[in-house]
Design brief:
256 residues; five-stranded antiparallel sheet; alpha+beta; 2 domains; four-stranded mixed sheet
Length: 256
């Protein structure tokens, strides 16, 4: 899929009109398995090439037609929609599929006929713009993706340290994480250093990143331990890494 700014998100109103179930947060809405949603992903590219078709019956803002098989949709780009959404949100997700339905030529229930009639009664096309639910959903998808990436980074650092006993470090945003795994007296000790982290929620994500290690087993090491000494603003945590968990972590490393 293209970058998020070039993907087309179906609104809650569109999802309900297409009679789709709302997917888990792990599935971004542009990836919904529906012909109209898939076809809508082409819209930013077609728009850039000047090949889009406007819905002329909607005059309060610019809407574009999306067509595939019998399915018809109405999509917009937030600058054209004169969105009242926060600027950062609008920039991160400008494209939206606001409504969808069937083509029934010559029938009042035809999608575009019904669309025009509804907008005429309402006096605007506002109902098809993203609402509070849509922005909250986008925020939760971002949080889920961010947490998943942190878990991936932490697990990879640990796995690489398991291979050779060296400490590995990664930075993301303004945070820094260091991992060191050392075998000693028949057990594997795992040390995690966290720097510039004041938010307890970020701590929780990092320390819960390794499946099979209970969060209560982590112990803070304010003076440092073994080969890992805390830098200013850094907190070091330690635990024992079970062999089965270590084996699973090593299995996640790509072949080199």
């Amino acid at each position: 899929m293209s970058s998020e700014a070039q993907s087309v998100r179906p609104t809650k109103a569109c999802i309900e009109a297409l009679e789709l179930s709302k997917p888990p947060i792990s599935l971004p809405l542009p990836d919904l398995d529906h012909p109209l949603v898939r076809e809508a992903q082409r819209l930013p590219e077609v728009h850039a090439a000047g090949g889009v078709e406007r819905i002329l019956s909607l005059t309060d803002r610019v809407w574009f037609k999306v067509k595939v098989s019998r399915w018809r949709g109405a999509a917009t780009r937030l600058p054209e929609a004169e969105s009242t959404a926060p600027e950062l949100q609008a920039r991160s997700a400008p494209w939206w599929l606001g409504a969808g339905g069937y083509r029934r030529e010559g029938d009042p229930s035809d999608f575009y006929e019904s669309l025009a009639a509804t907008a005429g009664r309402d006096g605007s096309s506002d109902r098809w713009l993203p609402q509070a639910w849509d922005w909250k959903r986008l925020e939760l998808e971002h949080i889920y993706a961010w947490e998943r990436e942190i878990r991936r980074i932490v697990c990879e650092l640990i796995a690489r340290s398991l291979q050779n006993g060296y400490a590995y470090q990664a930075e993301f945003e303004h945070y820094k994480v260091t991992a060191l795994a050392r075998a000693e007296d028949g057990e594997t000790y795992l040390l995690i250093g966290t720097e510039n982290i004041a938010d307890h929620r970020v701590f929780a994500v990092i320390l819960n990143a390794i499946p099979g290690i209970d969060h209560s087993s982590w112990m803070p090491e304010p003076e440092g331990v073994r080969e890992l000494e805390p830098e200013p603003g850094e907190i070091i945590w330690s635990t024992i890494l079970p062999p089965a968990v270590a084996a699973k972590l090593l299995d996640t490393l790509p072949d080199e």
